[in-house]
# Entry
Amino acid sequence: MGGGGQRKSLSHKDLRCVRAFTLVELLVVIAIIGMLIALLLPAVQAAREAARRMQCTNHLKQIGLGIHNFHDTYNGLPPIAIPHQNDGQSGVTFWGLIYPFIEQTSLYNLLASRTNEFDNRAQNANFWGIADSTGTLSQAERQSFQSVSTYICPSKRGRVTPYGDAPDNTRQIYGPKGDYAIVYGPAVDRWPNWTRVAGENGDDPNPPHASLRLNNGHFAGPFRTATLQGSTMRTWRPVDDMSWWRDGSSNQIVVGEKYIPTSFLDNCVYTHEGDGAGGRSNLADCSLLLAGGLNTYALARHFRAAIAREPDDTRNNTNDSTNPRRPHWGSNHPGSVNFLIGDGSVRSIIMTIPTGNNSLLHHLGQVNDGNSVSIP
# Structure
């Protein structure tokens, strides 16, 4: 019975007082963890989309830098295309001509060598090569044209599959794909004719369209076809410098994100507009290096075009609702579409703005309407 005392040992009764998680408490903890994860996932996804959107914006800025460097080198703006006077299609387009100015000089040299210094078109089965044969691009060369990440927005797709052989009994549209479009003209119905016109006052060689000239109202966008100095397409020169943007470079949209429904990504089969749900929109993802005919839709969008509000809209809700196959602007970014401005900046425009005649895009796209507008 000394003052030191003895350590009391735990009895069986004491052990029964030690608490443990009950099944209900465990379920509550799991539910709380699940709720936290559910709250965290949208934030993670939003952060990933913000990173993709930033990369998409940077690609547009690289294109803008390429346009300005092209202008410094040639003392003129990149042409929408080199005119081809034998039919309604064109020679090499804007997207191929700026290759050296977006760090793709090797592709430019390959394109020039395989088109006889741009005197031939870069769009047919013989050029792209349905099968590897003498005089056509090899599979590796075809894939190199498709590897230009600057022309791809990661919000729309993680990767681009190389174009390949046509399915049996179908016609394939050959050429690289891209998620951006050049701002071009007020409408689409005359584009095949425009790409035949060469020179500031050059006539379309097809007499019914002899009134189409580069300086008429149909050519009111930031880019026009090249002028030819001689009888061959290899003599092309830019027809305009930046003074063509009479409303000012900071008031001019030049390139934007184009609408491509998810089901049309990597779809390069040739179809006519009346061939069902797809029609001309099937061509929206292919053949960036050719303008004219239905293929123009891959190259550009007109400045009165509507904006698709969702990535898979079949028709636009603010303009042009009578024709779901019209080429629109659009993106996979929530609520907005990115546009490159003539001064090299990139601005986001909300998808719900009115489009069509006398709209924001109309005034920003037309080079000389005298309207100074601000982007909300």
User: Anything to note?
Assistant: The first helix runs from residue 12 to 15. Residues 249 and 342 are 4 Å apart (CA to CA). The two ends are 89 Å apart (CA to CA).
